[in-house]
Design goal:
This is Glycosyl transferase family 1. It holds the Pfam family WsaF_C. It comes from Zoogloea oleivorans. InterPro entries: WsaF_C. There is one protein chain. By secondary structure, the chain is of the alpha/beta class. The protein has three domains: 164 residues, Rossmann fold (3-Layer(aba) Sandwich), CATH 3.40.50.11090; 146 residues, Rossmann fold (3-Layer(aba) Sandwich), CATH 3.40.50; 28 residues, no CATH class. It is built from 14 helices and 13 strands. The strands form two sheets. Strands 3-2-1-4-5-6-7 form a seven-stranded parallel sheet. Strands 10-9-8-11-12-13 form a six-stranded parallel sheet, sandwiched between helices. Helix 3 links the parallel strand 4 and strand 5. The longest helix has 19 residues. The model has no long low-confidence stretch (mean pLDDT 92).
Length: 404
Amino acid sequence: MATIAWLIPRLIEGSGGHRTMLEHALALERHGHRCHLYLEGTHTDPDKGRQLIEQIFGYSFERVSFGWDNIQPADAAIATIWYSAAFVRDLPFPCRKLYFVQDYEACFNPMGDAYLMAENSYRYGLTPVTIGRWLRHELADRFGVAAYHFDFGANLDIYRPLPEAKKELAVCFIHQPDKPRRCSRLGLEALGIVKHRMPEVKIYLYGSPAREKGQIWFEHEHLGLLNLQDCNALYNRSAVGLCLSASNPSRIPFEMMAAGLPVVEMWRENTLYDFPPEAVTLANQTPECIAESILRLLDKPATRASMSQAGTHFMADRPLSVETDQFRDAVERVLKGQTPDLAGVERLYTAPAETSRHYVGTLPASIQKRLSSPPNAYVNSLPPRLRRFLGWGLRVARRLLENR
């Protein structure tokens, strides 16, 4: 069996991306491979990495080190974030070089140097293994780079229908304002419209610390960071799940489907390859269209029931073991010297985006203004002298934070 080095970025509590890396590394170890995890950063305690992984994610690994500058010889090395790809490319020993791609990470940055440098990571000659079909399509289409892919799965021991759960007329939204790709503002404005049109609907936000939620203009309940079992309980008592992602599908809609929860997402190129139209509604990316899709489902219990059944049926064939087996198969193909091909990938989602305004109708001017104004619109409306004073205060605050 092979020795495999993983270059893991700085650990983040609650990170689904880290959990996915670690689950796949564990799956390789269960099949006899030896994984050595190299964590970004430095630490003087040689046991600290193992302790942190177990403390934050509950997984146990024997071989964990800090730093990417002293990778020991291995049969294969796996980059897991764009700026780790160059480290894998430049390793001083011969090995198979892979790239575990979970997002189109260029989109994490404004168009500029960082965006282009992230794109450059796909040109380094590593063999990508992507989560989902869209990323495989994108790498082939944009860069002529062939990749393996594995399908989104879910832990069906955790994410499943709970017959005893009491359904509420509620929408749950994965709210992560620290991740721009999760489009928290679009989601909040859509939910504000839903609450305006249907005041009796409960709005649940989760996925980030409640103290970081900022100002939200409608009644809601913020549940903060939830453990996996509490996420499943939330999906079972909600009527609709909302999850927005602009750089690849999130894993969360697949977990929602496994729990029997109808899902609303955005109709974009990155969501058309992995979602089944029977269980997921993809809306045009305006708050009005997203709200309309939610309102339509709230108004049609029979449609929700049909989508719920379709979602659990779709995910029944996608337990986490199938996902990790597909990944292991790709890694073992690379270890044998095989290469993927550039074969095209077909879309799963064939339905058009929903565009009617029947449910949303005419909105009050106060809401309309919110939907079309940039985040700094209020500041821009202030007198010039006050704007300059606020700008000065912000610069001072940033310097103080940088010098802490």
